[in-house]
Design goal:
heterodimer, A: alpha/beta, nine-stranded mixed beta sheet, three-stranded antiparallel beta sheet, globular, disordered N terminus, B: mainly alpha, two-stranded antiparallel ribbon, 25 helices, 4 strands, 45% helix, 2% strand
Chain lengths: 459, 569
């Protein structure tokens, strides 16, 4: 436990005992973020289930378009329903840049808008190398552990970065945050990571009111929750986990995560108030709030699942607001939520915080090129990754797309993987997170030579 | 590449329980066998349970044996207490046959919110009731195990309306029965056919979702997956049987199950006389959708044009008798009942029992008996962490909760909506795990900050709930009454009260400092041995030992159930 965390707890206990506490934002220090700290906050968003990258970033011209139409058959999105990605031979699924009722040709919104502003980058044909697996659970574990082919690792890649990272701030509560009920594999073994499913409900608040909160008006009165930390003394791993939980709950209790009562998004950010992106939006809003509190957060993970589209994947029909499109609804939620997060940070009164926040989006694998008989797609191999941030080299495609001809497909059926996903994360760690390239071997053992793709800017 | 399977060792002494030295291997002070059994093989003791266990026979070994024989014959156990609660709760959907659930909650007038979800909501409420009140505790434990093993997400639009069928007719009848029969019941279950999409898998372009999870999760397990290896490169055992499966086997299994579907009025068959009734929700093998060509599954040839369902049944036969399946299923069971990292020798010996009795109607009961009577089980007291649902139910049992959970959402306010919501936040509410791998079963997954905080949030609230009916309605957990009954007024010091509840919750003395925290909270400025006046429930800010004493008692009892030792099992 770091000194500043002890100090924080002392301050909390002081508050509980009736001395003056400088309010929930007492540890807010806007200067520290701008000066001195030589790293970004890395946000790792996992699209569980295996998003169909070929349904998100679609060939719109050239030979690959012919292969696409021939083999995607009934699930090939017509060129007229794609929103063009600049002058490239690619188009985006229309819901990346507009709702169901927005026809092609209208100004694009959300993530597509950030692509146009060169803040969103796409990396083609990424995935697990050399291991091939079409199992969700193997693939997710390999990717998050950072050890393709090995599920037995006791730590995830993010934990190993935190262990190796130099120049990281001293956290007030925890350097890493997972928006999840259970610890994700990427943070396995990171004893100082915390997880919560949402800020508002993250509090031990069930005791009857006379003994729930501490009442500063009554001398010596302490709510029952203040005893929790002391209940979990001892050296067992369970006791240590309990102290982390008690500490995190104590810290978070001081923060009002409600909006607008406790937090007003900046930059005109509109987090989704409903629909598929609502939960993700609340989590990202909580995250933006924590980043602005500058409590020493280094990494965060989030999940946005529902991509295992074996059946009824959905086809877009832009301009028809009544048309149901499962994939499109999920995608719009993602696009709205990430866009709001970006605007919230970029438009902060503290300065353009998007310059210090890097988002990486990935999934466990892509999906089969040919659709199945259920208007869906089965498990495949190579897939796109997304990078978002003020220091991402956006508005462009990175990596090598291997092609869709029969002899270019992996085993004749899937998009080949040409970029090891670890290289993309490694680049973020080196260029944005201050990790010396010589330390990459400890984060990604066995990755081989570091080969940056130019996805991120340095400095 | 995944590692090849380890050898299925035999020769473990199945009678290790009777070996000398068995009576005293407990790691922690005061954890006797009765509490270990009730923590592991039941949902924690209710008052009287441990005494009943002690009176079963004259030695620990004989007591365990007698208890197991009772529990492994659930039909022989009088469960009238539970049955009267279930009747009193007035659930409306749990007895509806599949065809009625389909007609009413999928197709009929009850298919809108919230009635569409009522079968799942009532199944969850009944699961909580059974865990708390059923005398068939080991059976309920195994039902929970199999629901996680054959997980479907009960709270989805398609599955919620038929979930009562999945719980009642698919999982529960086989929980102590025969694995092969259970496998086919699951393979042909409406909920699973929808969840993993086999209902729409047709010969022309099969859907591999179910077949993949059948191999990876239900039978052989990912530890026997050889990725995209060529099927003839998968190593074989001495009987020329592949040690595992590869992607090719997934595709072949998917082809074998084409045509296993549900009667959901699909346009391709709804007018065909052979497919009537075409919209009942029941299982149907529709031959026109089956891939008739021959198949090669794990080195076994399935001939073309086999009789109806034979391809799929052949696949299930191969899997159910494969040593890899036995090891995978037994490893999960040992993880549930013994240790996060179960000893390989125990897994192997359990797998041997599993295989030897693969045709027995009580195959699973035999494996459970073997595991529960192993030396490893005896030595495993308190080395697992309770999952949130287990912690919650154990608290309800120890506090003699009196409740009749209604499915959320109810028409009028009741405490059960909040109960369900807080349980859901822990990540461990029944039938709400979204992915097909089911609830995790290791401490690392359930000691996350979120899981612990949300569990505490639930437990901090539990003693405050009242029955519907306003501010004077009785509490669901009669903490005050129990305390008064247990201790005469003169003996109601904070120390005595805390120790009484520690005895109920844990059964041995926890760390002194932690115990003292609860005592200090309860007594406030009272002397250590000063009796508290439990009749007081009013503002007394100048004298905190009298300040809302009844509320403070309930909060202190919550704190007892938040002690780390309670969270071990």
């Amino acid at each position: 436990m770091s000194l500043s965390r002890r100090g924080f707890l002392k301050a909390c206990c002081g508050a509980a005992l009736g001395t003056t506490m400088p309010g929930a934002f007492g540890f807010f220090d806007p200067g520290r973020f701008k000066a001195g700290v030589q790293h970004d906050v890395l946000v790792y968003l996992f699209l569980r289930g295996g998003i169909d990258g070929l349904h998100l970033v679609v060939p719109s011209g050239g030979g690959d378009r012919s292969h696409y139409e021939a083999k995607r058959t009934s699930m090939a999105i017509p060129v007229t329903r794609l929103r063009p990605a600049g002058a490239s031979p690619w188009g985006f699924h229309p819901r990346l840049g507009g709702d169901a009722g927005t026809p092609i040709g209208e100004p694009v919104q959300w993530l597509h808008q950030l692509w146009n502003e060169s803040r969103l980058a796409v990396v083609h044909a990424t995935g697990l190398v050399p291991t091939v697996t079409r199992s969700h659970f193997d693939a997710q574990a390999y990717i998050e552990l950072g050890t393709p082919g090995l599920r037995g690792s006791a730590s995830g890649w993010m934990s190993r970065y935190l262990a190796a990272g130099t120049g990281l701030p001293t956290p007030i509560v925890a350097p890493a945050l997972a928006f999840a009920s259970n610890t994700p594999e990427s943070l396995l073994g990171a004893d100082e990571a915390i997880s919560m499913s949402s800020g508002q409900e993250f509090r031990v608040d069930g005791f009857h009111w006379p003994w729930n909160d501490s009442n500063p008006e009554i001398a010596g009165h302490q709510g029952a929750h203040t005893r929790l930390f002391a209940l979990w003394q001892g050296q067992g791993s369970l006791e240590q986990a309990g102290r982390r939980a008690a500490e995190a709950a104590t810290y978070m209790r001081e923060i009002d995560f409600r909006s607008p009562e406790g937090y007003i998004p900046e930059g005109g950010a509109q987090y989704p108030g409903g629909g598929d992106g609502q939960t993700l939006g609340v989590q990202l809003r909580n995250l933006a709030q924590l980043i602005k509190l500058d409590a020493g957060l280094v990494c965060a993970t989030l999940d946005y699942g529902g991509w295992d589209t074996h059946e009824g994947q959905g086809m877009p029909n832009p301009g028809d607001p009544s048309h149901y499109d499962y994939f499109g609804n999920r995608l719009e939620g993602l696009s709205r939520a990430l866009h709001a997060f970006y605007r919230d940070l970029a438009g902060s009164a503290m300065g353009d915080l998007s310059q210090r926040v890097t988002v990486i989006v990935q999934s466990e694998f892509g999906r089969r090129f040919r659709p199945n008989g259920s208007a869906g797609t089965d498990h495949g191999y190579g897939n796109v990754m997304l990078a978002l941030g003020g220091r991402a080299n956006g508005g462009q495609f990175h990596g090598v797309f291997p092609g869709l001809a029969d002899d270019q497909l992996f085993e004749g059926q899937d998009v080949l993987t040409t970029t090891d996903y670890r290289q993309v994360i490694a680049e973020a760690l080196v260029d944005r997170m201050g990790l010396p390239p010589s330390d990459l071997a400890s984060v990604f053992p066995g990755m081989g030579s570091y080969m940056p793709r130019g996805v991120f800017q340095v400095g | 590449m995944p590692l090849a399977a380890t050898s299925a060792g035999k020769g473990q002494d199945e009678d290790a329980i009777f070996a000398s030295g068995f009576e005293s291997p407990h790691a922690l002070p005061g954890v006797d066998l009765s509490r270990h059994v009730f923590d592991r093989l039941a949902y924690g003791p209710r008052p009287g349970d441990l005494d009943d266990f002690q009176s079963l026979a004259g030695s620990d070994a004989a007591r365990l044996s007698a208890w197991l024989e009772q529990q492994l014959d659930p039909d022989g156990i009088d469960d009238s207490l539970l049955e009267s609660r279930l009747a009193q709760a007035g659930y409306e959907t749990l007895d509806k046959p599949l065809t009625q659930l389909w007609a009413e909650h999928v197709r009929g007038a009850l298919n809108g919110w919230p009635q569409r979800y009522r079968p799942a909501g009532e199944s969850e409420a009944a699961t909580l009731l059974r865990a708390v009140y059923s005398q068939r505790q080991l059976f309920e434990r195994m039902v929970e195990f199999w629901h996680a093993h054959f997980n479907v997400n009960g709270w989805t639009f398609d599955i919620a309306p038929v979930f009562a069928h999945y719980d009642r007719d698919v999982i529960r009848p086989h929980a102590l029965g025969n694995f092969r029969q259970m496998l086919e019941a699951v393979a042909s279950a409406n909920a699973m056919l929808q969840y993993l999409d086999n209902a729409s898998s047709r010969g022309i372009a099969f859907n591999e979702n179910y077949a993949r999870e059948l191999l990876e999760l239900h039978t052989l397990g990912a530890e026997h997956y050889f990725g995209n290896a060529h099927p003839f490169d998968v190593p074989v055992d001495g009987d020329n049987r592949p040690l595992g499966y590869c992607d090719y086997d997934v595709y072949e299994a998917a082809r074998a199950f084409t045509g296993w579907t549900i009667r959901n009025n699909h346009w391709e068959y709804r007018d065909d006389p052979a497919a009537q009734p075409a919209d009942s929700g029941e299982f149907m093998y529709w031959g026109a959708w089956h891939d008739r060509a021959g198949k090669l599954f794990m080195r076994t040839i399935l001939l073309p044009d086999q009789p109806a369902m034979k391809d799929g049944r052949d696949v299930l036969d191969i899997l159910a008798t494969h040593p890899g399946t036995a090891r995978h299923v037994c490893a999960k069971l040992c993880r549930r009942l013994v240790d996060d990292q179960p000893p390989q020798a125990l897994v192997d010996s359990a797998a041997a029992v599993f295989l030897e009795h693969h045709q027995a109607p009580d195959q699973i009961a035999r494996v459970v008996r073997h595991v529960a009577q192993s030396a490893a089980f005896m030595e495993s007291a308190r080395n697992k962490v309770k999952r949130p649902f287990e912690a919650f139910v154990a608290m309800l049992r120890a506090t003699e909760a009196d409740m009749l959970p209604a499915p959320a959402p109810g028409a009028a306010w009741n405490p059960y909506g909040e109960m369900a919501s807080r349980l859901q936040q822990t990540g461990n509410a029944p039938f709400r795990w979204p992915a097909p791998d089911g609830f995790p079963d290791t401490a690392a997954k359930w000691t996350s900050v979120s899981a612990l905080v949300q569990t505490w949030r639930l437990l901090s609230r539990a003693p405050q709930w009242r029955e519907p009916g306003g501010d004077d309605a009785p509490f669901l957990l009669p903490v005050l009454d129990i305390t008064r009954t247990a201790l005469p007024a003169a003996q109601r010091s904070a120390v005595n009260i805390v120790d009484f509840w520690v005895g109920r919750a844990i059964g041995y003395t926890p760390a002194a400092a932690a115990r003292q925290q609860v005592i200090d909270f309860l007594r406030q400025n009272a002397a250590v041995d000063e009796a508290l006046n439990l009749d007081e429930e009013a503002w007394q800010a100048g004298d905190l030992r009298r300040h809302y004493t009844q509320s403070r008692l309930r909060a202190a009892v919550s704190l007892v159930f938040m002690l780390p030792d309670f969270h071990r099992r």
